[in-house]
Amino acid sequence: MTTAAVGARRIDVGKLLPQLIAPVAALVIAAAISSIALLISDKDPLTAFQHMYEFGTQPDQKVEILNKASELYIAAVAVAFGFKMGLFNIGVEGQSKVAAFFAGALASASFMDWMPGGLRIVLIVVVAMIVGAAWASIAALLKTQRGVSEVISTLMLNAIGGLVVTWLLNDHWGVTEPGAQIKTTGILPEDSWMPGLPIVSGTEQKVLGFFAIAVVLGAAYWFVINRTRFGFDLRATGYNPFAAVASGVNAKRMVITAMLISGAVAGLVNLPRMLGESHTYTEGFGGIGFTGIAVALLGRNHPIGMALGAILWGFLASSQIILDLDGIPKEIILIMQGVTVLSVVIAYELAARIGRRAQQRRVGVATAAAAPAAAEVVEESK
Amino acid sequence: MKVLAAAAVAIVALGSMAACGDDKGDTPGTASSGATKKSVKVGLAFDIGGRGDKSFNDSAATGLDRVKSELNLEVKDLAAVAGESENDKYARLKLLCTTGYNPVIAVGFVYDGADAKNGPLARAAKDCPNTKFAIVDGGTTADNVADLVFAEEQGSFLVGAAAALKSKTGTVGFIGGCQVDLIKKFEAGFTAGAKAAKADVKVLTNYLSTPAEACKGFNDPAGGKTAATGMYDQKADIIYAAAGGSGTGVFEAAKAKNALAIGVDSDQYNTVTDASLKTVIMTSMLKRVDNAVFNFVKDFGEDKFKAGPTVFDLKTDGVGYSTSGGQVDDIKDKLDKFKADIVAGTITVPTK
Description:
Chain A: It comes from Dactylosporangium siamense. Chain A: It is a multi-pass membrane protein. The complex is a heterodimer. Chain A has helices at residues 2-10, 13-40, 45-56, 59-83, 92-107, 117-146, 150-173, 210-227, 229-239, 241-246, 251-266, 271-276, 288-298, 303-325, 331-381, and strands spanning 175-176, 183-184. Chain A is mostly helical. In chain A, a hairpin with a 6-residue loop joins strand 1 (175-176) and strand 2. Residues 1-9 of chain A have low confidence and may be disordered. Chain B is α/β, with parallel strands linked by helices. Chain B has two domains: 37-150 and 291-300 and 304-312, Rossmann fold, CATH 3.40.50.2300; 152-286 and 322-344, Response regulator (Rossmann fold, 3-Layer(aba) Sandwich). Chain B is 40% helix and 18% strand. Chain B contains eleven helices and twelve strands. Chain B has helices at residues 2-20, 56-70, 86-98, 120-127, 152-166, 181-197, 221-233, 247-256, 268-271, 289-301, 332-344; strands spanning 41-46, 74-79, 104-107, 133-136, 145-150, 171-176, 202-207, 238-242, 260-265, 281-287, 308-312, 319-321. The longest helix of chain B has 19 residues, at 2-20. Chains A and B meet through helix 4, helix 7, strand 2, helix 13 and helix 14 of A and helix 1, strand 2 and helix 3 of B.
């Protein structure tokens, strides 16, 4: 009886099915609401979606979608490491900016000229991770030592980080390339431009080399969360912090470790473009850290789910250009993105409730059947 | 609960990005058919802000509209969105050139990218070697790219002189939209002009944003209003707003403080939406992006395309000052004297 109950819970179709239907339903709702917005502005939704699809499946656009997805995915993984234990790192934006800036500035400093290109790429990656973790550690320490909510501190540190970078770039280390107006940390020597991956056929454009690192990162994330003691503690703390502490998890250490990992991953967010596209840190970087939160939500912190979310987001963001060419307000994409996130969150919550209710009903039936039997046992013992 | 909070943050972040983007989604009549239209299709890519900023982008839009009506060509304009990558800008230019638009005009230095040799325009120009490109305010060099640049410091010199001559307090102000070399040119010219007209004039300066904030100061009327109010409180009585769409905020502050302001790029006396603000706009520094765009297309049609920089200055009326409203009529002689001196080369206006 008991073993059967456990077995039934392991592959509980009644609980799993709503979880799978939820994202699909959310997408349908998002498409429906966007269609209404399109109809209001006198545009044919079907034509719009068709053009988006045709444009998005062109080889060049596939490359850009994967490029966007790579950076979004990294940001989402950074956020997810915190989410898994109920820690809300909205500082990925600031961490990624500070990290990329210092890594870029160091790598293109004149005293680094001797360094061979490959080594320089490694240096950039390592420095970015260290700086990202260091910036995140401020929020972690504030939380563990002074009880400051990480939501507040990471958000504030975004602003501080952005301004520190601005100040250093504008007044100290920034250079402007001939013909350009934008301040940069200096163009990296050509031997440290990360080569692209020719994985999309039909175009000469290559996917940013960091795509491969994003894939590896996803696998590492899955492994750490599901196959390590640390990952178990992380999830346990997320499910029930009090129970986790009671069973011997060191809460403070968990907060610090999770924040450091989250920050280190955040440090990588701007590197795909920095190593493979602009070849420098420019003032135009930013925004991905916030979008990463949305992608983590879309993918429910699941390594595959977030990958799908990142690709969907990349597709939507790339489609703006073609809508503009068709004279369709490209703000429709922002509506679609916002509605998608909201409906996914709501759909998952509903799915979880339906699943829980089904489970309760089953448990209720089971215990109701068991109760008279138990009463008999009591009677007999008397 | 946290998940919902996270969703809220994500939505807010999206919303703020949307707010930075242009709100004028309507692209005027797609002009798909029209038997009289010639086969030349002119494509134009705006900077962030797009049509409706009443300043820089709108000046380019005016030029494009003239191309459409006077040269009877099919035109198409697309606009950048906040938070997009360099590759998105490249994709926009490439979409225009691969769908048959030639020439293609990129409006704003953002299309140069960080590294003008490998930036969005440089890459698109390489991919579409048979398309002629132009970039307003840019510095990309290629055989099929024309750089349309302006001597903004010369026009700014004249309005600086006008401000100094008209100021009763002896203090004038400069508000720049973004702290980049391009806008510093405006400041340098304005200051030089003010000092030339009245040596002891005091010039206050303020920039609304840096490129790290995606130059949001070009589209931040509230920020412009706050900065201008501060300057008027410091005894300035005329402020030059070299800040694109933020200028509206400066005009509102001027009205509230019963002071004056100077517009930029377009003749803002005529373009400002709120007619009650007209009285505070003493003059505008004209940067004739419209002429540059129109002439570029016209020259293209006459096979007179010229790669490399074309400078639009006082001599060619590429820059200047506006007289709408008549507030500078009494000092027009003095201003025209300065203008003649600059054109003749007796006055050299600094650029930084």
